[in-house]
Amino acid sequence: MLLIVELLLMLIDVTYYILRAVVRVVFHPRPKSVDGELCLITGAGGVLGRLFALEFAKEGARLVLWDCDTVANERTAQLARKQGVDVRAYTVDLSKRQSVYDAAEKVRAEVGDVSILVNNAGVVAGRRLLECPDELLERTLLVNCHALFWTTKAFLPQMKVRNHGHIVTVASALGLFTTACVEDYCASKFGAVGFHESLAHELRVENNDGIKTTLVCPYIVDTGMFSGCEIRKEIRKLIPPLEPLYTVQRSMKAILADQEMICIPRIIYVPFIARALLPWEANVVVYRFMGGDKCMLPFIKNAETKTSCGESQAS
Ligand SMILES: NC(=O)C1=CN([C@@H]2O[C@H](COP(=O)(O)OP(=O)(O)OC[C@H]3O[C@@H](n4cnc5c(N)ncnc54)[C@H](OP(=O)(O)O)[C@@H]3O)[C@@H](O)[C@H]2O)C=CC1
Ligand SMILES: CC1=C(/C=C/C(C)=C/C=C/C(C)=C/C=O)C(C)(C)CCC1
């Protein structure tokens, strides 16, 4: 009897949450205030990281900016200070666990407890698996996936004490479905998605309902990170690369609404769902038709000469 009652209650909840999600597509919930919150953004010297910093500054959040590129990070700090908020920039190599823990200690001592953590930094090897040095493949996992463990372990305890906070994971559409020749990146972003979901479950199970989580999964964004990546010309007109500012503004809307997940643009939910529903071969023919299968080949040609954290990828 109890089981039937619980089953009915569960179905009512399921219906409620589906309806709520549909209504929220049209009527956005009132955004929460982050005025005075301490927000840490990783990869803040990069394109999306800088825009996240400026958007959070606009909302009145105090900022802690982490990046391995000191000059780019300081530039972001300068720009954000113009919005009249306190900003501290730290040079951190996220691929090194101790560098993360040391910087976190410094932040706690010099600034205070972080209440919003935006895990945004990311890298990609940009090489075919068999031609890619092992260290480059490892670095993608360290920065895009392992660093999520270290930053979260460093800042979640203080959020738990106050049952207040927000952890944002900037993953990717390539954390939901895949394409050829980005094995390192897809593995790291699928890892990031899994990390995010498990953490979100843990917070619910432990009744830390004041700590929110948001997963951000964008399609190609015009930041240069994936320059050259393109799908079939005719389809590109329908799904063009995203503007960085649009991507960050859509992400901010989701974060401030305490939304659990956002795919940008919304059409990206379709290949995500299709991957789970259709047979593998059916997905393959759709990818082939849309030019999704070979979209990374021109990117890989481009990426061979790029550098990150002072390391040359063209060795
Ligand atoms: N651009 C795109 O098409 C998409 C991007 N994303 C994700 O969005 C996020 C931001 O990307 P985007 O702004 O385009 O990329 P950027 O390369 O512009 O920014 C990433 C920043 O992270 C920094 N970084 C890299 N490695 C480390 C490290 N070891 N320690 C500290 N900082 C590091 C980079 O420094 P440096 O420049 O020295 O490497 C850079 O400043 C990433 O997680 C990316 O995977 C998701 C979907 C699409
Ligand atoms: C595979 C595939 C597509 C292309 C996806 C691309 C090109 C994604 C690129 C994402 C990037 C660069 C993410 C970075 O984090 C379509 C045409 C949408 C649908 C069919 C399957």
Automatic annotation (TrEMBL):
This is Short-chain dehydrogenase/reductase 3. The keyword Transport does not apply. Gene3D superfamilies: NAD(P)-binding Rossmann-like Domain. It is found in: Membrane. Belongs to the short-chain dehydrogenases/reductases (SDR) family. Its EC number is 1.1.1.300. It is a multi-pass membrane protein. One of its GO terms (molecular function) is all-trans-retinol dehydrogenase (NADP+) activity. GO terms for cellular component: lipid droplet; membrane. PROSITE patterns: ADH_SHORT. Keywords: Lipid metabolism, Membrane, NADP, Oxidoreductase, Transmembrane, Transmembrane helix. Catalyzes the reduction of all-trans-retinal to all-trans-retinol in the presence of NADPH. It catalyses: all-trans-retinol + NADP(+) = all-trans-retinal + NADPH + H(+). Coiled coil: none annotated. It comes from Poecilia latipinna (sailfin molly). CDD domains: 17beta-HSDXI-like_SDR_c. It is an enzyme of class 1 (oxidoreductase).
